[in-house]
Specification:
The complex is a heterodimer. By secondary structure, chain A is an all-beta fold. In chain A, 0% of the residues lie in helices and 60% in strands. Classes of the chains: A mainly beta, B mainly beta.
Protein backbone atom coordinates (compact mmCIF):
# COMPACT_ATOMS: atom_id res chain seq x y z
CA UNK A 1 0.00 0.00 0.00
CA UNK A 2 1.10 3.52 -0.75
CA UNK A 3 2.15 5.52 2.26
CA UNK A 4 1.85 9.31 2.57
CA UNK A 5 3.77 10.72 5.50
CA UNK A 6 3.51 14.21 6.89
CA UNK A 7 6.44 15.25 9.03
CA UNK A 8 4.51 16.61 12.01
CA UNK A 9 1.14 15.77 13.58
CA UNK A 10 1.00 18.95 15.65
CA UNK A 11 2.83 22.23 15.20
CA UNK A 12 2.68 25.55 17.05
CA UNK A 13 4.29 28.57 15.40
CA UNK A 14 4.40 32.30 16.07
CA UNK A 15 2.90 34.95 13.82
CA UNK A 16 5.41 36.01 11.18
CA UNK A 17 7.45 32.82 11.29
CA UNK A 18 8.31 30.94 8.11
CA UNK A 19 6.75 27.48 8.32
CA UNK A 20 7.54 24.37 6.31
CA UNK A 21 5.13 21.45 6.14
CA UNK A 22 6.65 18.36 4.58
CA UNK A 23 4.94 15.51 2.79
CA UNK A 24 6.67 12.38 1.57
CA UNK A 25 5.29 9.50 -0.51
CA UNK A 26 6.92 6.11 -0.85
CA UNK A 27 5.87 5.39 -4.46
CA UNK A 28 6.48 7.11 -7.79
CA UNK A 29 3.26 9.10 -8.05
CA UNK A 30 3.29 12.28 -10.08
CA UNK A 31 0.33 14.09 -8.57
CA UNK A 32 0.58 15.49 -5.05
CA UNK A 33 -1.76 17.91 -3.31
CA UNK A 34 -1.98 20.18 -0.29
CA UNK A 35 -5.36 20.88 1.30
CA UNK A 36 -6.47 22.70 4.39
CA UNK A 37 -9.50 21.62 6.38
CA UNK A 38 -11.55 24.01 8.50
CA UNK A 39 -14.81 23.35 10.36
CA UNK A 40 -17.84 23.99 8.19
CA UNK A 41 -15.75 24.57 5.06
CA UNK A 42 -14.61 21.11 4.09
CA UNK A 43 -11.25 20.53 2.44
CA UNK A 44 -9.96 23.28 0.18
CA UNK A 45 -7.13 22.87 -2.31
CA UNK A 46 -4.12 25.13 -1.76
CA UNK A 47 -1.66 23.87 -4.39
CA UNK A 48 -0.96 20.76 -6.35
CA UNK A 49 2.00 19.44 -8.28
CA UNK A 50 1.93 17.09 -11.25
CA UNK A 51 5.67 16.50 -11.51
CA UNK A 52 9.02 17.61 -10.18
CA UNK A 53 9.33 21.41 -10.21
CA UNK A 54 5.78 21.69 -11.61
CA UNK A 55 3.05 23.32 -9.54
CA UNK A 56 -0.42 24.71 -9.96
CA UNK A 57 -2.44 27.00 -7.73
CA UNK A 58 -5.54 25.58 -6.16
CA UNK A 59 -8.52 27.46 -4.81
CA UNK A 60 -6.81 29.27 -1.92
CA UNK A 61 -3.09 29.75 -2.70
CA UNK A 62 -2.72 33.18 -1.08
CA UNK A 63 -0.16 33.21 1.71
CA UNK A 64 1.32 29.87 0.65
CA UNK A 65 3.99 28.58 -1.69
CA UNK A 66 5.17 25.06 -2.49
CA UNK A 67 8.32 23.24 -3.48
CA UNK A 68 8.76 19.97 -5.36
CA UNK A 69 12.46 19.36 -5.92
CA UNK A 70 12.16 15.57 -5.77
CA UNK A 71 9.29 13.39 -6.87
CA UNK A 72 8.69 11.89 -3.45
CA UNK A 73 8.58 15.16 -1.50
CA UNK A 74 6.08 18.02 -1.69
CA UNK A 75 6.54 20.90 0.73
CA UNK A 76 4.04 23.57 1.70
CA UNK A 77 5.56 26.86 2.83
CA UNK A 78 3.93 29.61 4.83
CA UNK A 79 6.20 32.57 4.13
CA UNK A 80 4.94 34.59 7.11
CA UNK A 81 2.49 32.65 9.24
CA UNK A 82 -0.68 34.40 10.33
CA UNK A 83 -3.36 33.40 12.82
CA UNK A 84 -5.88 32.80 10.03
CA UNK A 85 -3.63 30.02 8.79
CA UNK A 86 -4.37 28.00 11.93
CA UNK A 87 -5.87 24.86 10.43
CA UNK A 88 -5.53 21.17 9.70
CA UNK A 89 -3.29 20.64 6.68
CA UNK A 90 -3.62 17.47 4.63
CA UNK A 91 -1.28 16.20 1.96
CA UNK A 92 -2.62 13.77 -0.64
CA UNK A 93 -1.36 11.79 -3.62
CA UNK A 94 -3.34 10.46 -6.53
CA UNK A 95 -3.03 6.69 -6.79
CA UNK A 96 -5.57 6.02 -9.53
CA UNK A 97 -8.43 5.84 -8.88
CA UNK A 98 -7.94 6.82 -5.26
CA UNK A 99 -6.67 9.86 -3.49
CA UNK A 100 -4.61 8.81 -0.49
CA UNK A 101 -4.20 11.26 2.35
CA UNK A 102 -1.52 11.72 4.94
CA UNK A 103 -2.34 11.82 8.63
CA UNK A 104 -2.61 15.58 8.68
CA UNK A 105 -0.73 18.35 10.46
CA UNK A 106 -2.64 20.43 12.98
CA UNK A 107 -0.98 23.85 12.77
CA UNK A 108 -1.67 26.52 15.36
CA UNK A 109 -0.33 30.04 14.77
CA UNK A 110 -0.20 32.15 17.91
CA UNK B 1 -20.46 26.73 -8.87
CA UNK B 2 -19.70 23.13 -7.95
CA UNK B 3 -21.12 22.19 -4.58
CA UNK B 4 -21.50 19.11 -2.40
CA UNK B 5 -23.99 19.16 0.44
CA UNK B 6 -24.22 16.52 3.12
CA UNK B 7 -26.90 15.74 5.63
CA UNK B 8 -27.32 15.40 8.46
CA UNK B 9 -24.50 17.53 9.83
CA UNK B 10 -24.22 15.21 12.84
CA UNK B 11 -25.82 12.01 13.99
CA UNK B 12 -25.83 9.92 17.16
CA UNK B 13 -26.92 6.28 17.01
CA UNK B 14 -26.76 3.25 19.28
CA UNK B 15 -24.30 0.48 18.62
CA UNK B 16 -25.76 -2.20 16.39
CA UNK B 17 -28.20 0.14 14.63
CA UNK B 18 -28.10 1.05 10.95
CA UNK B 19 -27.87 4.56 9.57
CA UNK B 20 -27.86 6.37 6.23
CA UNK B 21 -25.93 9.49 5.33
CA UNK B 22 -26.92 11.68 2.40
CA UNK B 23 -24.94 13.59 -0.21
CA UNK B 24 -26.35 15.91 -2.89
CA UNK B 25 -24.09 17.45 -5.47
CA UNK B 26 -24.12 19.97 -8.27
CA UNK B 27 -20.78 19.15 -9.85
CA UNK B 28 -20.41 19.21 -13.60
CA UNK B 29 -19.09 17.51 -15.60
CA UNK B 30 -19.26 14.54 -13.26
CA UNK B 31 -16.45 12.00 -13.11
CA UNK B 32 -16.87 10.00 -9.92
CA UNK B 33 -18.11 10.17 -6.34
CA UNK B 34 -16.14 9.04 -3.33
CA UNK B 35 -16.95 8.50 0.31
CA UNK B 36 -14.21 8.93 2.88
CA UNK B 37 -14.07 8.14 6.58
CA UNK B 38 -12.05 10.52 8.72
CA UNK B 39 -11.24 9.69 12.32
CA UNK B 40 -10.65 12.64 14.63
CA UNK B 41 -7.22 14.15 14.07
CA UNK B 42 -6.43 11.84 11.13
CA UNK B 43 -6.46 12.08 7.36
CA UNK B 44 -9.46 10.81 5.35
CA UNK B 45 -9.46 7.17 4.27
CA UNK B 46 -11.26 6.04 1.14
CA UNK B 47 -14.35 3.83 1.57
CA UNK B 48 -15.89 3.69 -1.91
CA UNK B 49 -15.53 5.18 -5.36
CA UNK B 50 -18.37 5.16 -7.89
CA UNK B 51 -18.43 6.25 -11.51
CA UNK B 52 -21.42 7.45 -13.49
CA UNK B 53 -22.51 3.93 -14.46
CA UNK B 54 -22.38 2.43 -10.97
CA UNK B 55 -25.49 2.45 -8.77
CA UNK B 56 -24.13 0.76 -5.69
CA UNK B 57 -20.85 -0.29 -4.17
CA UNK B 58 -20.10 -2.06 -0.93
CA UNK B 59 -17.11 -2.17 1.37
CA UNK B 60 -17.85 -4.47 4.29
CA UNK B 61 -20.64 -2.91 6.35
CA UNK B 62 -20.58 0.25 4.22
CA UNK B 63 -22.80 0.45 1.13
CA UNK B 64 -22.84 3.50 -1.09
CA UNK B 65 -25.50 4.25 -3.69
CA UNK B 66 -25.44 6.72 -6.53
CA UNK B 67 -28.30 8.21 -8.54
CA UNK B 68 -26.61 10.23 -11.26
CA UNK B 69 -29.96 11.50 -12.57
CA UNK B 70 -30.94 13.19 -9.32
CA UNK B 71 -27.31 13.81 -8.34
CA UNK B 72 -27.69 12.11 -5.00
CA UNK B 73 -25.65 9.57 -3.12
CA UNK B 74 -26.10 7.82 0.18
CA UNK B 75 -23.83 5.88 2.49
CA UNK B 76 -25.52 3.15 4.49
CA UNK B 77 -23.79 1.72 7.54
CA UNK B 78 -25.07 -1.62 8.76
CA UNK B 79 -24.82 -2.93 12.33
CA UNK B 80 -22.83 0.07 13.53
CA UNK B 81 -19.84 -0.32 15.82
CA UNK B 82 -18.16 2.12 18.18
CA UNK B 83 -15.25 2.34 15.74
CA UNK B 84 -17.59 3.78 13.12
CA UNK B 85 -17.60 7.04 15.09
CA UNK B 86 -15.98 9.46 12.65
CA UNK B 87 -16.66 12.14 10.08
CA UNK B 88 -17.89 10.83 6.72
CA UNK B 89 -17.04 13.00 3.77
CA UNK B 90 -18.60 12.90 0.31
CA UNK B 91 -16.27 14.02 -2.49
CA UNK B 92 -17.20 14.53 -6.13
CA UNK B 93 -14.64 14.64 -8.89
CA UNK B 94 -15.17 16.44 -12.15
CA UNK B 95 -13.67 15.36 -15.46
CA UNK B 96 -10.73 16.98 -17.13
CA UNK B 97 -7.83 15.21 -15.46
CA UNK B 98 -9.83 14.11 -12.43
CA UNK B 99 -7.80 16.31 -10.14
CA UNK B 100 -10.62 18.71 -9.37
CA UNK B 101 -12.36 17.50 -6.23
CA UNK B 102 -15.28 19.17 -4.50
CA UNK B 103 -15.62 18.18 -0.86
CA UNK B 104 -18.68 18.11 1.33
CA UNK B 105 -18.31 19.35 4.88
CA UNK B 106 -18.97 15.89 6.27
CA UNK B 107 -21.42 14.15 8.58
CA UNK B 108 -20.13 13.65 12.11
CA UNK B 109 -21.31 10.23 13.30
CA UNK B 110 -21.14 9.14 16.91
CA UNK B 111 -21.98 5.56 17.87
CA UNK B 112 -22.84 5.05 21.51
CA UNK B 113 -23.38 2.04 23.76
Amino acid sequence: DVKVTQSSRYLVKRTGEKVFLECVQDMDHENMFWYRQDPGLGLRLIYFSYDVKMKEKGDIPEGYSVSREKKERFSLILESASTNQTSMYLCAIKSQPKFIFGQGTRLTVV
Amino acid sequence: KNQVEQSPQSLIILEGKNCTLQCNYTVSPFSNLRWYKQDTGRGPVSLTIMTFSENTKSNGRYTATLDADTKQSSLHITASQLSDSASYICVVSSTGGGNKLTFGTGTQLKVEL
